[in-house]
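Researcher: Structure for this, please.
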Amino acid sequence: MEMLDEYLSRKSLEISLLNHCLSAPLSLRQPNNPEEVIKQKFQIASALKAEHAVQDWAITETAWAHSGTKRAGPFEFSYDYQRADLEVRGPSFYAFQQPDFHDTIYTSSGMSAIAAILFAAAKVIPSAEIMVLPGSYGETLELLESYVQLRKVTLARPVEEIARSGERPRILLLDSSSIFDPIEAVLRCPLPRLDLVVFDTTCFSSSSGRIGRVLRWARRFRLPIVLIRSHTKLDSLGVEYGRLGSVVFVDANCSPEIEERRAAFPLLANETRQAVRLFGGAALPAHFPPFSGSARYRLLTDRRIASILRNSRRTSRALAHVLKASPETLHSFHGLYLTLPPAKEINESQARQMALELSTDLANAGMPIRHAGSFGFDFGATEWFHDTISNRYLVRVAVPDLPTALWDEVANAIGVWWSAQ
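Model: Predicted structure, token format:
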């Protein structure tokens, strides 16, 4: 358990890191409760954005009056009109060895990242089939089914099906938001027959051991692998600093006997850049968090996510007891949120309304929970959720980074509210 004083001490370090990114740090008192913590962090984030706008007022889409290097904290930028040729120099968001990273392309969001790589793959490997695990992110599946000209195959038996050879080139899409653990589902495969792995890491900490395991697995079998990510959720210390995504091409050191694979990888990176340019999906320099990249930032980020995961495990057990359900039916394997199944079938609008009413009633009772369509906050968040396996609409509860006893109280209140429905 994390006590209130431990929580406040940790949050003071986060506030200090944010505040010292300002040229004139704000004068803030020591926070005494989570509400003050949340308020101060968003206040500093707003001041950082305002300072960036004031200092870089001349940086228009044509950069008409700007000379010298454009910066945001540890990041340096160079670009011409509309950022179509945006180049970024700075630390990686991932906590892995930089030599393994062949190329990084930043985008305006996580969906911009996945759209760019999928459209590029459809152009470079037009005959490929893309293999997905059940329960993958709904919007990614919608994008594949509606716009991407690749044959989608949903894996029922991942270990066997990945090892089976096929007539078409094969792309495996690993999705960290899947309700199943995609890592264990593929790492047990003794000989994967794949031409490319695309791994959405959004729901894992950037230093997660799961990401490291997938990278080692790909290196072992010399598989080309691309990491895609939304940096809005877990990489901004809970303040959602700006919409930012990335596509990272990892040097897989492909075996010499697979020359097509080796030749296609840099071509895929180039086509991904073209897709970002043509769809207008380039990143905004103002959205790069200036507080990221340091050892202190990584430590505080890891401690935040550890707190979320700890609270999530406790919440799933508490709700399972109240609702007479198995914790596994409520708990997502990545641990960032839980899903609550209504007693009867409902549609998206009804699920959204239930999520709104749940958070509104508890917030009116003074609890730190809001209706918000994301996760990784310093407060709890509710939203509708579509389970693509059962084709049911549920209510999602994103677990926050809060003192253990306080969030236990909120979790119990959620169970009481839900039971009353």
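Researcher: Any notable elements?
Model: The first helix runs from residue 4 to 19. The chain has a mean pLDDT of 89.
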